[in-house]
Amino acid sequence: MADLEVTRDGGVAILTMNRPEARNALSTDMVTGLSRHLHAIETDESVRAVVLRGAGDHFMSGGDVKSFLAIGEPDDEVPMDPRTTILHYIHTLHTVMFAMRRMPKPILAAVKGAAAGAGVSLAAACDLVMAAETSFFTLAYVNIGTSPDGSSTYFLPKAVGLKKAMELALLGERYPAADMVDAGLVNWVVPDDDFEDAVMEKAHRLAAGPTHAMGRTKALLYSSYEKQFEAQLQAEAEAFASCVTTEDFAEGVTAFVQKRRPEFKGR
To answer: Which end of the chain is less packed: N or C, by CB atoms within 10 Å?
Structure first.
């Protein structure tokens, strides 16, 4: 059984972290699979939105902590010291975050049960987060004596503010989904019984949108973290001009004039 399963539902690609017996703890195979499939989805024009979810009762419980006990033990194939071993693991995980940030299509995290450690990092790196009512979030790194990774120190302060990010990181406590809505990390909380249907309804709504324009919008919002005012306005102008050349723009304007709903094709 693969640690990552990829399925399709129309224009939605569904990436399922598939280690339910371990609460989907992050394995090397899972990281490699996420990186590979995200790169493939990036250039697949038939995919217009992505859902990231966990199999079973949980989203993802973080890194495979039990495997950390083996760090530094001899490896017959490639012997590495503990620091080199963990750097290799983390840099591989970071290729996933780069791919998510670069992805020109919206990514929706579907969080149920636990989102812990790297699970919080992955959710924060998604563009939108829908959470089941009984789900909870805990950054948790401090509880095993380490600092966060997986881009959480980049995304969390921007989503929840510096003081709240400090609280999440330094205390390692659990927070219910409703608290994360108030903090700004979660967009929607849905009753558990309605969760799966609500996720796919939202994913299909995203997939029915003007894909090129949404990709440009996503890039603009993320670039606003680093760009100066003048550079950001120039990027806005160039993105708008790029959208004007698409079939979806022509459809959107025509539908507006005709007072009907647009039917975007992602082109």
So the answer is: N
Mean pLDDT over the full length of the chain: 92
User: What are the residue ranges of CATH 1.10.12 in the chain?
Assistant: 211-258
Residues 106-133 have a mean pLDDT of 96
Question: Which pair of tokens denotes residue 137?
Answer: 């979030």
H or E stretch at 9:
strand 4-9
Q: What is the DSSP string of 124-168?
A: HHSSEEEEETT-EEE--GGGGT----TTHHHHHHHHH-HHHHHHH
Is residue 218 a contact partner of residue 239, using CB atoms and an 8 Å limit?
no
Collapsed DSSP state (helix, strand, coil) of residue 69: coil
Within the chain, which residue ranges are assigned CATH 3.90.226.10? 4-207
92-111 core/surface letters (b: 16 or more CB in 10 A; e: else)? ebbbbbebbbebebbbbbbb
133 has a pLDDT exceeding 60: yes
Topology classification of domain 211-258: Lyase 2-enoyl-coa Hydratase; Chain  A, domain 2 (1.10.12)
Class of the CATH domain delimited by 4-207: alpha beta
pLDDT value at 204 more than 90: yes
**C-alpha closest to that of 173 among 143, 212, 149:** 143
